[in-house]
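Fresh eyes needed here. Kindly weigh in on this sequence plus structure tokens:
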Amino acid sequence: MSSFFPKHTVQWHFEEPTVMRRFSLNLVEMALLTGVVLRLYRAVVMTQSAGSWAFVVAVAGGVVLLCAMATLHLANFPLQRWLWRAPLFVLVEVAAEALTSVALIALKREPTGTARAEFGDWMPMMWSALWTRGLIVLAWALVLAGVVWLVRHTILRAERIDEEPQEV
């Protein structure tokens, strides 16, 4: 009898996705976590390194974190779904940053340049965040999609060459 039709249900083997995989499948959770962590990272690390070469390293660290989280999420889906998932990721991420920023402003911990941000600074900061995060994530998704397409195209070409009959 074929293994497609087992005699007992215990013969079925389902793989439960890992916690990290289940978390990375959820756009809202990934983007919320990214937004909160990036805003806290900016408030703590970026202010400590202002005016030095460490500032450049801190900015690069934030960009790497943003791109890594977007990659973890997007990698679970086909390229066609990236068209709406990447922009939605940015919107939810910036919304989480906005809420975190409001809390930090209320606690007088949100930096804006070398001063502390006030509630009047909040809207321009969020437009700036939306613009920069959107540019970074969408550009990264485009580069990543190009790499994925190139790798798949190369693998398919190699498989077609292997399948062609060899002349002796």
Remarks:
- Strands lie at 111-112, 115-116.
- Residues 16-162 form one domain.
- The chain has a mean pLDDT of 87.
- The first strand starts at residue 111 and ends at 112.
